[in-house]
Design goal:
The chain is of the alpha/beta class and about 325 residues long. It folds into two domains: about 140 residues, no CATH class; about 150 residues, no CATH class. About 55% of the residues lie in helices and about 10% in strands. The chain contains 14 helices and seven strands. The chain has a seven-stranded mixed β-sheet with strand order 1-7-6-2-3-5-4. Strand 4 and strand 5 form a beta hairpin.
């Protein structure tokens, strides 16, 4: 080890120590970035391989990745603590704040911690953990208060009349209702999310409409999906994910060219080859055509038209 001249002043020694301290933090960030970059370039399977080579548990390497992917920590690296433990605890604090206040507001509160200089290079893991505990206590208190509010209003809630045949998908799966004809209106948010999923099975796991198919039906079952033009390829993925074979694409009039409807089936069906629609968003017309062409047992997904206009032949899923 290189010796240091004994002629240095106290201030010079202190500055040297602080410089070495900052190198510890920079090393943690540098290693976390390197791990993340390797996984991004070589694929997710690289994470397990790195864990073995670096003699880390899966839990430990996940903590390094959490630090390396955390944008707010990266943006405030010069203000961050110097230890791995304290840095990882800050990522946990961010998650807890988002749990307490919602994603956007929680993230802003986390950023304010740095702006108000409540975190510094000298902050210890124990100090961060104490803030996390305080936030968890706030979350628990809020949950108890919300539950008490629910109990106080339970009689009023019981009197509210829920529309017939309207469910969330989770509720529908519990009552075990099955259908021969599906009319699906995915939201843009859902389509963007599902388009990012690499395998059809992931879409099924996220939104298991597959489990609502009437598999005991002797004839064919069918699905119609209404989409914006750029999203047609995603619609194909949805048919595959929910167990239907693509058969046909319905195109509207020229002046409504941005809307399309794709059709898929299981079994062999005498499907409708022409929809004389002005706009596929006119769900009431689409419903009337399907009513006239197929036997009753329909599921409408993602459109609330039947909530206010109930039809005994149809069930609606919202959410």
């Amino acid at each position: 080890m290189k010796s240091v001249s004994n002629t240095m002043t106290f201030r010079e020694h202190l500055e040297r120590i602080l410089t070495e301290r900052d190198k510890i933090r920079d090393g943690v960030f540098g290693m976390s970035y390197a791990i993340v970059e390797a996984i991004d370039q070589l694929g997710e399977q690289t994470q397990d391989e790195l864990a073995v080579e670096l003699n880390m548990t899966k839990g430990t390497i996940s903590k390094w990745i959490s630090i390396g992917r955390h944008q707010t920590l990266q943006n405030n690296s010069d203000k961050c603590p110097n230890t791995f433990g304290a840095l990882y605890s800050l990522t946990t604090l961010d998650k807890q704040l988002q749990l307490n206040y919602g994603e956007e507001k929680g993230r802003k509160k986390f950023e304010e911690i740095f702006k108000k200089k409540k975190i510094s290079p000298l902050t210890t893991r124990a100090e961060v953990d104490s803030i996390i505990k305080l936030q968890k206590d706030i979350f628990t208190k809020n949950k108890k208060e919300k539950f008490q509010d629910y109990l106080h209003n339970i009689e009023d809630r019981a009197e509210e009349k829920k529309p017939k045949n309207v469910y969330t998908l989770k509720e529908l799966l519990k009552v075990k209702k099955f259908f021969n004809t599906f009319l699906v209106y995915p939201t843009d948010k859902q389509l963007i999310k599902w388009n990012k999923l690499h395998f059809p099975s992931y879409i099924h796991e996220d939104y298991p409409l597959t489990e609502c198919r009437n598999t005991s039906h002797t004839g064919s079952i069918r699905m119609f999906i209404v989409l914006n033009n750029p999203m047609i390829s995603v619609g194909m993925k949805l048919l595959d994910a929910w167990g239907f074979n693509y058969k046909f694409t319905y195109t509207p009039r020229e002046d409504y060219k941005d809307k399309f409807m794709i059709y898929g089936e299981r079994g062999s069906d005498n499907y409708i080859r022409t929809f004389e629609l002005k706009d596929f968003d006119h769900v009431e017309y689409t419903i009337s055509v399907l009513n006239s062409f197929y036997e009753p047992n329909f599921l409408l997904v993602g459109n609330d038209y039947l909530v206010k206009n109930p039809n005994a032949n149809w069930t609606t899923v919202i959410g």
